[in-house]
Amino acid sequence: MYKSDNQIYDAVIIGAGLSGLVCGCYLAKAGMKVLIAEQHYKPGGYCTSFSRQGFTFSAAAHFVGGLKNGNLGKIFNELGIDKIVEIKKYDPSNIVITPKYRVSFGNDLEKTIRDFQEKFTDESDNIRSFFYYLMSSDPKSTTTMRSWTFKDVLDKYFTNNELKSILGFPLLGNAALPPSLTSAFIGTKIFKEFILDGGYYPVGGMHKLPEAFAQRFCEYGGELRLSCPVRKITVRNNNATGIRLSDGTNILAKYTISNCDARQTFLKLLGKKLISEDFMDALNAMIPSLSGFVLYLGTDERLNKLPETGINIWVMSNDGLDLDDVYLSVKKGDYRDIDGYLLYVSPDKRVILAFLPAPFKNKSYWVRNKLKLAESLMRRIEKDIIPDLTKHIKFMDAATPQTLFRYTLNYKGAAFGWASFPSQLAITDFRKPSFVKGLYMTGHWTTKGFGIPGVIYVGEDTAKMILRRENA
Amino acid sequence: MSENSIEKEIISIASDVSGFDPEEITLETNFYKDLEVDSIKAIEITVAIEKTFKISVRDEDVPNITTVSQAVELVTKLLKQKDADV
């Protein structure tokens, strides 16, 4: 018999990342009694903001994608999120700048195609076929390409290496992988949902998005507990029965959903004893995505000559940059040459963010290198894009992989869950482990998607799966 | 492996991936229309079939699998080929 002080829910969700929140909203909306337990004092995971000295910085995620063509628009509408948070659109959403070229990706597909065709006349027809391929989404053709990399796709359409490098570079920022290692499915999703349907920003800051989902979740009758770490997923006869909180409280639930890191879910919360030998081998062989280095700059009002605001600006130091080489240098933590970076200037022109993929090194490595890397990145931005930047800085800080780990507990500060290799795509045990009934995973460790469009899709899908089971 | 047990395995995979109850899935079930299988789930089902039966599904076979019975047929054929190769 269960002890009488146990708290009973229909579903309990570990982690209030966007995926957990979306899943919670749908379950609560369907009338289930749902609890979300989040270790941090605010919801959102990587999708959040912080303020320092009057500046508001997006912590990691700094734009939203998939509002027009992806699931986000549908979910916003179904949950009434569009009534709570105002979304502003910036178009074009992404610009790539190299020494020779400047090309833009926008919501208008034909305009994007024309821009590329004007710059790369030798690939004119291929450019059209490539962009049309990106926008088509037939499940059968995608399945046919399940073992392809995005490099295979680029090689299928193009011969021009400078063009291939420009089209591959955003994957280094959006998946922390070069095209030669990124699954074609994920690479295509990135273009379709993050880039060609990107450039959306919640007015007031990225934190407005998780706050809106949290508000709806509570209005639907859900209960969100913040600063509430979870110690265990409780299991009886291979059935997940709920969770035990750090303060010892037992929460009983028919469905347990983990929106947190996969290794923690399996090794710490569930425990090795419950995991089959096969799955343990599979888990140990999985490789996480790289982490990231984020530079946060607050500037004075006198800074002019700024590039376009509110959009992603991808700066490449060379044309035809070998992205495999860039990836290998970054993986080693070799930043002697910064070959490229992602730059973002906030619409109010007061905040500048810059992003680099980064390896998870120990604390002392980042203590030694954080300031050095921040300063060399700042000088690079000054040289490439914003003259006199260093004279106008009022605030500077940076997040290292250690910072990202500390706030979100993602394994090795991974920015995108498991690395998006074709071999690490769509593995059912990372979604709904076969060895424990009643346990579901949601979020970017499920091998089914990452970034805001990806985790939101998985969140809704997890709820759908549970509701189908309930209604069967 | 008998066709009956292949069918059971495939239904179990389809159920795990889609969330639909195994009882609701029959040989005639269409993955896309009846189980709302989208791109990522189609990949997930294919990957799970390959892993479960230790076979590799060729790219050109994928467009021919729309229903559970077509999946059973293909797996049966590939398992036979595998036995013949050994």
Task: Walk me through the structure.
The complex is a heterodimer of chains A (472) and B (86). With 472 residues, chain A is of the alpha/beta class. Chain A has 15 helices and 18 strands. In chain A, helix 1 (18-29) packs parallel to helix 9, helix 1 packs parallel to helix 15 and helix 3 (109-119) runs antiparallel to helix 4. Chain A is globular and about 65 Å long. Chain B is mostly helical and 86 residues long. Helices cover 62% and strands 0% of the residues of chain B. Chain B has helices at residues 3-18, 31-34, 39-53, 68-85. In chain B, helix 1 (3-18) runs antiparallel to helix 3 and helix 1 packs across helix 4 (68-85). The two termini of chain B are 15 Å apart. The model of chain B has no long low-confidence stretch (mean pLDDT 93). The A-B interface holds A 137-146, 185, 425-428, 431-432, 434, 448-449, 464-469, 472 and B 13, 16-21, 23-24, 32, 37-44, 46-48, 59-60, 62-63.
Strand content of chain A: 15-25%
Strand count, sense and barrel status of the largest sheet of chain A are: 7 strands, mixed
DSSP helix fraction of chain B: 55-70%
Average per-residue pLDDT of chain B, rounded, comes to 93
- Rg of chain B, Cα atoms, Å: 12 Å
Layout of SSEs?
The complex is a heterodimer of chains A (472) and B (86).
Chain A lengths: L6 E8 L3 H12 L4 E4 L11 E4 L2 E4 L12 H9 L7 E3 L4 E4 L4 E4 L3 H11 L4 H12 L3 H6 L5 H8 L3 H14 L9 H12 L4 E3 L5 H12 L3 E3 L4 E7 L2 E7 L4 E9 L3 H10 L5 H9 L5 E9 L12 E5 L6 H10 L7 E6 L5 E8 L4 H22 L8 E7 L1 H8 L30 E3 L9 H21 L1
Parallel strand pairs in A: 1-2, 1-12, 2-9, 6-14, 12-18
Antiparallel strand pairs in A: 3-4, 5-8, 6-7, 10-11, 11-12, 13-16, 13-17, 14-15, 15-16
Helix pairs in contact in A: 1-9, 1-15, 3-4, 6-8
Chain B lengths: L2 H16 L12 H4 L4 H15 L14 H18 L1
What's this, in brief?
The complex is a heterodimer of chains A (472) and B (86). Chain A contains 15 helices and 18 strands.
